Automatic annotation (TrEMBL):
It comes from Noccaea caerulescens (Alpine penny-cress). GO terms for biological process: proteolysis. PANTHER family: PLANT BASIC SECRETORY PROTEIN (BSP) FAMILY PROTEIN, PTHR33321. This is Basic secretory protease. GO terms for molecular function: peptidase activity. The lineage of its organism: Eukaryota, Viridiplantae, Streptophyta, Embryophyta, Tracheophyta.
Length: 248
């Protein structure tokens, strides 16, 4: 009888073990499926082409910056960082989610610009950069990547505000150059680029995640009233207070 009882206990234990294994496998399957689903939602492809040939800027791009490999990683890192600033890392439905962000390195007469999620970068500019050329390159990449990921008020937002948000992300990433405008600088809030970036940084002191919320509001349109809605003050009043705060 004891032998029969022991045998039944062993069989029950074996059955429980198999059930546990099945549950564990099922949970692992669900987790893997979830990861794959998130990856598909988050998927943005990146492409870099080097058309610089043997130019001075092309050589700096490859030898000092890291060439196509570093440029591709910079596109990916800039995308992830921008999503974090816009508070979209876990909210993919809030994003402007392009299927691909590409970059062409070439020899031109400009610095860089983005159009339809394609960045064109002039290697000739890199040839004349003194100091940390990799940091300068990365900062420009971050700025241009933001243009592929931000909302622009369905074309209604001031262009210089759009540029200011791009420079704000660059500022928060720590890739600004030594000549970046100091806090309090500039003549008007929508002067753009570094001036507007510093102003947005000031506004963010009053409301954590301000730029993320502003970007979210700009998905379907734009009005200066967004500043009142988020901060309780007119944007021009905020600018006057900003300038006064820095004794200007």
């Amino acid at each position: 009888q004891n032998s029969s009882h022991t045998k039944k206990k062993k069989e029950k234990k074996k059955t429980n073990s198999k059930s546990l294994e099945k549950m564990t496998c099922h949970k692992i399957f669900l987790v893997v499926s979830l990861i794959l689903a998130v990856s598909l939602v988050n998927a943005v492809e990146f492409s870099v082409v080097d058309n610089t040939g043997d130019s001075a800027g092309g050589r700096r791009f490859r030898d000092e910056i890291g060439g196509i490999s570093y440029a591709t990683e910079s596109l990916r890192a800039a995308t992830d960082f921008t999503w974090s600033v816009f508070q979209q890392t876990n909210n993919p439905s809030d994003r402007r989610n392009p299927p691909m962000i590409s970059m062409v390195m070439e020899n031109g007469d400009y610095v860089a610009y983005s159009s339809e999620d394609k960045i064109r970068f002039n290697a000739g500019y890199l040839a004349g950069v003194s100091g940390d050329v990799r940091k300068e390159f990365t900062g420009i990449v971050y700025h241009e990547v933001v243009h592929s990921l931000q909302w622009d008020g369905a074309g209604q937002a001031p262009r210089m505000l759009v540029e200011g948000i791009a420079d704000y992300v660059k500022l928060k990433a720590g890739y600004v150059s030594s000549d970046f405008v100091a806090p309090g600088g500039g003549d008007k809030w929508d002067q753009g680029y570094a001036v507007t970036a510093r102003f947005l940084e000031y506004c963010s002191d009053f409301r954590s995640g301000f730029v993320a919320e502003l970007n979210k509001k700009m998905r379907g349109g734009y009005t200066d009233g967004f500043f009142v809605e988020l901060l309780g003050k007119d944007v021009n009043q905020l600018w006057r207070e900003y300038k006064a705060n820095y004794g200007q």
